[in-house]
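Fold it.
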Amino acid sequence: MEAKFPFRKVLVYLDGSEGSMSAAMYAILLAKSSSSQLHALYCVNTKALGDLVKARIFVSQEKNEYLADLNKDAHRHIRHIEKLAASKDLTVSSVIVEGSPNAEVSRYIKENKIDLLVLGSVNMIRSRREELTSETDRMLRTSTCPVLVCRDDDAVWQMFEEL
């Protein structure tokens, strides 16, 4: 008897952290083992960048240079997940967007009827301010679909290598 999985479309959110790369590998494993469609979204956080300009931490010229660097990073990380997926004979629908990560992930989930969101480990919240500003934490709390938080990086890397 063939196993049925409750999800057909898996979205992994990438932010460039090691945790999000582990989440990407775990999402590849899930999609491969369940014959699900894999989606990857990298959001360049222009909301935070705008806040830095408002706070006069950046001037407009610095903002533009930093934004260009962030976009280069986004493309590098997306290419990396595409190569990882290809190494496991899997394709990934990848997209880079700009804006508020939580809002963009929510929009993508609704527009693409995503069944499962995979996130890298959520950092420990040390202050009320961090709790209010953590985009990954916000995604975890407000997602309209189930969320899987990938925590054990070493185990994920080993499973990925063994597949």
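The chain has one domain: 9-162.
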